[in-house]
Each structure stands twice: as structure tokens, then as C-alpha cells.
TrEMBL record:
Keywords: Membrane, Transmembrane, Transmembrane helix. The lineage of its organism: Bacteria, Pseudomonadati, Planctomycetota, Planctomycetia, Pirellulales. The keyword Transmembrane applies. It comes from Pirellula staleyi (strain ATCC 27377 / DSM 6068 / ICPB 4128) (Pirella staleyi). This is DUF1559 domain-containing protein. It comes from the Bacteria. PANTHER family: GENERAL SECRETION PATHWAY PROTEIN G, TYPE II SECRETION SYSTEM PROTEIN H. InterPro entries: DUF1559 (IPR011453), N_methyl_site (IPR012902), Pilin-like (IPR045584). The chain crosses the membrane at residues 16-40.
């Protein structure tokens, strides 16, 4: 009598995922990433704007202290010369040691490389992204002083995006000239008014927001 061996089929457990499943997972991740990126980018921009507003606040306080001590605004310098308001207020920003390395009155072209970069407190991260960085030149100013006609009061503004003036020269601008230009924050400017609290936002010459 023949012997019949009944074989049972053994199915090996499947390992890994199929190509179709992999494609589905990648597609889902792509959708999630597309949804998250705008929020991440928005948070990043807001963080950089917060740094810029804090810088303006600190610069405004330092300028106020300088004016209280000297009863006048810092003396402006000729184009291409080292000096002006940014150099003058350094001791009030805990930058006295850095100030001692700056040859005030000399030509910007003669500035040592050690002072090409401006202090962090004078650098706007949003403005920095709009400026082509080079190690062969002094950094452009990210903030400008806007004095009134009699130099009895002042405002501090973001520098217009097309302004390429060395920070070592402490650039100044007339109010009418600056508001007619494009700012680095959604085409507008953050600014601080001397002696007043808070940072305001101006777009097309109109104040649209005040941040206390």
C-alpha cells in the first residue's frame, strides 16, 4: 500500500514593506512636510524680527543714555570716515573694549579686519539675509539714525535694503528719505522713537503697528 505523505505548506512571515507601501509612506511624509514648512518658516521669521526689535530697543536706550550724559546727539562724520553714532554709543552697550580698538576719525578703507564685523547688537538677522556677505569689506549698517532738523531728538530705523554704508560710519538719514524707500521687514521698517518706550512698524510712511 503506497504511503502518502501529506505536506503542509509553511508560509514564511513577510519581512519589510512593499514598494507600494514605501511610496505611500513617502507621499504622506511629503504632505506633512508641505504643511509644516510654512509654519516653520513663519516662526523663524518672527524670531528674527524679535531679535531686530530687541536690538532697536537696546540701541534706543544706549542713545538716550549718551544724550543724557552729553546733552547732544553724537557728531556725524564725513562719508567714508570712521565714527558717528554707532561708535559713540558703544560704551553704553557694554562694548567699551571693542570701542577702544576702533580708530575714530580714520578712513574706513584703513580699518583693521578685526572690526569689519559689527557687534551682534547692531546686526539685524533679517537685513543680514538681504545683504551679500563678503570677508573683504566692512559690513553694511543695519540701522540708521534719523535726527530731527535741530538735532534735538531722534529716531532709530532699520536701514533700507538698498543702503550700503559701512557700519563704522554710523549712517544718518532724513526722515523723508528713509520712509520713501523699501525696508527689510515686508518692505517696511521697525523703528524706535528717542525717549519713548516700544518699537513701532512703518509701511509706506504710515505707522501701522506699535509693539510695547
Amino acid at each position: 500500500m503506497p504511503f502518502h505523505c501529506k505536506l503542509s505548506l509553511y508560509k514564511h512571515p513577510r519581512s519589510g514593506i512593499t514598494i507600494v507601501e514605501l511610496v505611500v509612506v513617502i507621499a504622506i511624509l511629503g504632505i506633512l512636510l508641505a504643511l509644516l514648512l510654512p509654519a516653520i518658516q513663519s516662526s523663524r521669521v518672527k524670531a528674527m524680527e524679535a531679535v531686530c526689535k530687541n536690538n532697536l530697543h537696546q540701541l534706543n536706550l544706549a542713545m538716550g543714555q549718551f544724550c543724557q550724559a552729553t546733552h547732544e546727539l553724537p557728531v556725524p562724520v564725513a562719508p567714508g570716515q570712521i565714527g558717528g553714532w554707532k561708535v559713540a554709543i558703544m560704551p553704553y552697550l557694554e562694548q567699551g573694549n571693542f570701542r577702544n580698538t576702533i580708530p575714530a576719525g580714520a578712513s574706513v578703507t584703513d580699518a583693521p579686519k578685526e572690526i569689519y564685523s559689527q557687534p551682534i547688537i547692531m546686526r539685524c538677522p533679517v537685513r543680514a539675509r538681504l545683504t551679500q556677505k563678503t570677508t573683504a569689506a566692512v559690513e553694511s549698517a543695519h540701522y540708521v539714525l534719523v535726527p530731527d532738523g535741530g538735532r534735538d531728538s531722534f529716531m532709530l530705523f532699520d536701514a533700507p535694503v538698498d543702503l550700503e554704508v559701512p557700519w563704522l560710519s554710523g549712517p544718518e538719514m532724513d526722515y523723508g528719505a528713509i520712509v520713501a524707500r523699501q525696508g527689510p521687514h515686508h518692505d517696511g521698517f521697525f523703528y524706535a522713537s528717542g525717549g519713548q518706550q516700544g518699537i513701532s512698524f512703518m509701511l509706506h510712511g504710515e505707522r501701522v503697528l506699535t509693539n510695547r
